[in-house]
TrEMBL record:
Residues 232-373 form the Glycosyl transferase family domain. This is Glycosyltransferase involved in cell wall biosynthesis. It comes from Salinarimonas ramus. Gene3D superfamilies: Glycogen Phosphorylase B. CDD domains: GT4_PimA-like. GO terms for molecular function: glycosyltransferase activity. Signal peptide: none annotated. InterPro entries: Glyco_trans_1 (IPR001296), Glyco_trans_4-like_N (IPR028098), Glycosyltransferase_grp1 (IPR050194). Residues 16-216 form the Glycosyltransferase subfamily 4-like N-terminal domain.
Length: 429
């Protein structure tokens, strides 16, 4: 049934994956008949929101800087006002809060006695740096979040004082904002994402698997044959956890052409490891699609628990096979040897071997690409399908939370009862 929905996200312009999903799901929900309002933390809202009749309230920054990420009282007031205006039956759907909205936005949802749902786009809900990745070691972190070993470890990509700030943000999110009391229904993006998060959330939290939507136009006519010297392609930030340096070394070892779309602090190291590489920087989406369609294969060598790498699905939609690491959720989207290849994360020799094979056997690359495209088209992760899955989650959340469902903790139930009593008293007064 149509409901008032308040979408909460740090950014309401497409500045990254979670922001894109927040904006596009808001548009899809509005198209499905829901009354959608958005609250964002900074920037100018995507103009498509206003065109669709979606009101967007921005909590303009006032110089708080990083302190806003720890506790932004203005954001809490903005969310509270949006929920009050939404009226009875509203659902708050949180996509992000860690950069500007803070735990204050979560506290507003909890205090309003509103049904809350959160999409866990990364691991910020359970890991202070949000990645389960130790940047000092260049490897996945297996320490228990907030244990003594976790707190003491300088795992962040930045100096240790930034880790302290992230610890403070984490404490505010859980001890004051009480994320999982505000939003006991949480969306994960993939099986790997669920398995990484599940051990670290309270028992009452209901985890729902809903993949992100993707819209890739099918190419007109049959795909053009790949050139004999078609490069292998990387698309993404050039940061340590993305593993671009692994691909650079593998391509250099195999003596094969490679192109990198993106930029970041590892750009110099990538260029040094593979002097022959094409360093293309960031490109418009249309150009990225062209490069994907022309590539020998997309390579996704991520070293961390990436929840749902959309670039792999985009390549598959274009008939380009993907070579992915076994550390990230891209492995869930690839059947090794059938629709692509899966390699051990960080293994330069293994990756170089797969690249050589694809270069030496063009028929293999074509077969894998065709199978990948067929698998994608058989069950495309479209926006309407995404919205339908969200509506199912909302109905479960509403039945459980609005009805004091058995899954909630006693503390959460008591808090909701008290909030309802305060609301009744305020109206009576």
């Amino acid at each position: 049934m149509p409901r008032p929905i308040v979408v909460v996200a740090d950014h309401l312009a497409v500045t990254g994956g979670s922001a894109r999903v927040a904006v596009e799901s808001a548009l899809g929900l509005a198209a499905a008949g829901h009354r959608v309002t958005c609250v964002g933390g900074s920037g100018t809202p995507d103009p498509r929101l206003a065109a669709a009749g979606i009101a967007a309230r921005i909590v303009a920054p006032k110089g708080g800087g990083r302190l806003d990420a720890i506790w932004n009282a203005r954001a809490g007031r903005a969310v509270a006002q949006a929920l009050a205006e939404a009226g009875p039956g509203a659902i708050a759907h949180v996509h992000s809060w860690g950069q500007s909205l803070s735990g204050a936005a979560l506290a507003a949802i909890r205090d309003a006695d509103t049904v809350g749902v959160v999409t866990l786009h990364d691991y910020l809900s359970v890991c202070p740096n949000g990645t389960f990745f130790d940047f000092s070691a260049g490897a996945i972190c297996t320490r228990k979040p907030l244990s003594g070993a976790c707190i003491a470890r300088a795992c962040d990509a930045k100096p240790y004082p930034f880790k302290l700030m992230r610890l403070a943000r984490h404490a505010a999110t859980h001890r004051v904002g009480r994320l999982f009391e505000a939003c006991p229904d949480a969306i994960v993006l993939s099986a790997l994402h669920r398995d990484a998060i599940a051990p670290h959330v309270p028992a009452h939290v209901r985890l729902h698997r809903v993949g992100n939507p993707i819209d890739v136009r099918a190419p007109d006519g049959p795909p053009s044959p790949r050139a004999a010297d078609a490069p292998f392609l990387f698309v993404g930030r050039l940061t340590p956890e993305k593993g671009a340096i692994v691909l650079a070394r593998a391509a250099a070892q195999a003596g094969l052409p490679v192109a990198f779309v993106g930029d970041g602090p590892e750009a110099g190291a990538v260029r040094e490891a593979a002097p022959h590489a094409q360093m293309l920087g960031w490109q418009p989406p249309e150009r990225v699609s062209e490069l994907m369609a022309q590539a020998r294969a997309l390579v996704f060598p991520s070293l961390w628990y990436e929840g749902q790498p959309l670039v792999v699905l985009e390549a598959q939609a274009l008939g380009t096979p993907a070579v992915v690491s076994d550390a990230c959720a891209a492995r869930d989207a690839v059947r090794d040897g059938e629709t692509g290849m899966v390699v051990p994360a960080g293994d330069v020799d293994a990756l170089a071997d797969r690249l050589r094979r694809l270069a030496q056997e063009p028929d293999l690359a074509s077969r894998l690409g065709a199978a990948a495209e067929a698998a994608f088209r058989a069950d495309p992760p479209s926006l309407p399908a995404h919205v339908a899955a969200l509506e199912t989650v909302y109905e479960v959340a509403f039945a459980e939370q609005a009805g004091d469902g058995a899954g909630e903790t006693a503390g959460a139930k008591a808090h909701r009862r008290a909030a309802r009593e305060r609301a009744v008293a305020a109206k009576a007064g």
